[in-house]
Amino acid sequence: MPRHLTTVPAPADPLALLPQLRAALDGTAPLAVLPAGPPPAVEAAWAVLRPEVPLEDDADLVVVTSGSTGGGRGVLLSAAAVRASGEATLRWLGGPGAWLLALPVSAIAGLQVLCRSVLGGTDPTVLASGEPLAAAVARMPAGRRYTALVPTQLRRYLDAEPAALRAFDGVLVGGAATDPALLAGARDAGVSVVTTYGMTETAGGCVYDGEPLDGVRVRVADAGDAAGPGGVGIELAGPVLATGYRLDPEGTGAAFAGGWFRTRDAGALDDAGRLVVHGRLDDVVVTGGVNVAPQAVEAVLRRHPDVVDAVVFGRPDDKWGQRVVAAVVPAPGAEPDLAALRPWVTARLGGAAAPRELHRISTVPTLHTGKPDRRGVAAAVPDERS
């Protein structure tokens, strides 16, 4: 008998989702949570989900991706994959505990906070909009405490409420590249921070501090191999993998092959076998024949005293093929310019990585997953050479 997807809007109280989520994890009622946001975002999610069309086999949760490198997709996750991810996370952290939800439940990172709570038999606490972190921590039960954040949240709370961060036995950080200096600062402050790597297609983070969770396998394909040209591509396998994309057999075939998922992320395994992620192959800026990872440039720019945050991308250039473009959020009272920032980047990453075009913005917009909206910024700031 055909099964159909139940779609629900992200509720004001995320805990209202728990009964439906339990049913999805039992494999009895397939579920998708629509993102909260402007009507175009909701309409785009509806177009991907198409709940009127019978659901594919072995799908119990469908999560719409953020579309950070293109149009969003509906990722088909089985209850077994979500459970495998949640249970492996709890084992890695040292056992069940109380979770603080600080991320949208329409994205896999937020949804997994609820799933881990269900699997661990605990009640999650929701961080209300604008609520101090310390106030939310005070509402959590005693015992082991965990949360999941994106890097911008970690930076904000480390600056404003480091003591509240220290109250957690584990702070998972993912969804975007995390500046090594930010991680070092958090650890120096006594925060039990854990870097996570994964995506919706792996039911969330599946590599913690460079090491795969139980059952997860990691390999890196050289340029010209299955990962495709232009870099070295990370591929993942294991019980956490999605079964494919909603109503997209061609996309499923291209991304999932032989039990492996091609992430389209560049990376390498270090001498100890730990995974080092370099960034999206799609985001690499090729300027003067040199491959530049935007995430590396962003991390260096954030360390400049005149810069609070940054987004880096490429634009076509007659001379260089592409040029590096930076949009920065200035520090209070500062007016960063190319004369100051180009030497700063050159000294740390080389001249090819130094921005040739600069824009000042008030804030870095994010997608519903918490990732920086790189494409949105690129479309919003004018092309100085057009």
From TrEMBL:
What are the protein's UniProt keywords? Answer: Ligase
> Which domain of life, per UniProt?
Bacteria
Q: Where is the AMP-binding enzyme C-terminal domain?
A: 297-371
Q: Name one Pfam family in it.
A: AMP-binding_C
Q: Name one GO molecular function term.
A: acid-thiol ligase activity
Gene3D superfamilies under this entry? Answer: 3.30.300.30, N-terminal domain of ligase-like (3.40.50.12780)
User: Where in the numbering of this chain does the AMP-dependent synthetase/ligase domain appear?
Assistant: 50-245
Annotated region (Disordered), positions in chain: 366-386
Q: Where is the composition biased (Basic and acidic residues)?
A: 370-386
Q: Tell me what this protein is called.
A: AMP-dependent synthetase and ligase
User: Source species, please?
Assistant: Geodermatophilus obscurus (strain ATCC 25078 / DSM 43160 / JCM 3152 / CCUG 61914 / KCC A-0152 / KCTC 9177 / NBRC 13315 / NRRL B-3577 / G-20)
